[in-house]
Amino acid sequence: MFNVRLGEHSPRVTLLQVVLNSHGSAGADGRRLTVDGAYGRNTRAAVVAASKMIGVGDTSGGAATSALIQRLLADVDLSVITSVDLGDPKLQADVDEFRRNFDDPILLGGMCNGLAQMVLAVQSRAQPGRVAALRLDGHGNLGEWLTVSVGDVVHLREGNRAARQEYAVIAEEIYSYVSAKNFDKVNGMIQPLSLIFAPFGFAEHLGCTLGARPQTRTMLGKLASLWGVPIRVGIQTQPIGSVMDIHGPAFTAFPRGHSLTSWSRQFQALDLPGVSR
């Protein structure tokens, strides 16, 4: 799962507000939350109320914890699916952290057709229209690649001649990562994932500096439109073993020209079935 922090502005907050409204957890003003993607005092009050009602989650720091989010999503039959690029064995630390926070991540790595394998694995776990978040964990490779099964190859690109040649070979494995250069070739392979998301769902990739490059941001806009949900990435280097949050500033690409506010407010009146109030 993941945390949602006081002061955060993101699709995570949108999801949280939709689910809290469905649970009948009112804001500090006693009213239904405004679904705007901004975690302020009203959303915090609803988080505290939901935590007390369900009996999980430490809200002392103001955050909606992974424990609380797991319970809230389970009550409305929504899931979070995570896939980790274990082409870099160091990311086992991320796997361990996911497992401590109610995730059973898909493990990929060292394969030449990783995108197709990821899609199949995600589809095998997903109920169509019921995935709240798809979280892909791997490297950003200098902000250019959303890696799925190739690991960390930046050291090859910046190494000696033999290392650079090895990097060139891996770069040809275009069906194991997504970048601005290969997007038009892989989009048909990953398009079926558009069917898994809840209307207010989102995707994230936890690779380093993906939000820092203009060409990567443009590609992420295409991916958001392909899947029909926001895609969120970090702008700076992301620490290994700390994956419940995107650290530092983030960039989010929205589909169909939406902003966070306009995306969120589509779901203001939405109530999800299956909640026991």
Tell me what the structure shows.
The protein is of the alpha/beta class. The protein has 2 domains: 1-76, PGBD-like superfamily/PGBD (Muramoyl-pentapeptide Carboxypeptidase, domain 1, Orthogonal Bundle); 78-256. It contains 10 helices and 8 strands. It has helices spanning 11-23, 41-54, 66-75, 92-100, 114-125, 154-157, 161-171, 183-190, 214-227, 260-265, and strands at residues 79-85, 106-108, 131-137, 146-147, 177-178, 197-205, 231-234, 250-253. The strands form 2 sheets. A 6-stranded mixed beta sheet has the order 2-1-3-6-7-8, sandwiched between helices. A two-stranded antiparallel ribbon has the order 4-5. Strand 1 (79-85), helix 4 (92-100) and strand 2 form a beta-alpha-beta unit. The longest helix has 14 residues, at 41-54. It is elongated, with a radius of gyration of 19 Å. InterPro entries: PGBD-like_sf (IPR036365), PGBDSf (IPR036366).
Tell me about the largest β-sheet.
Answer: 6 strands, mixed
What would you call the shape?
elongated
Mean pLDDT, all residues: 94
Give me the strand/helix succession: HHHEHEHEEHHEHEHEEH
From the N-terminal CA to the C-terminal CA, the straight-line distance is 23 Å
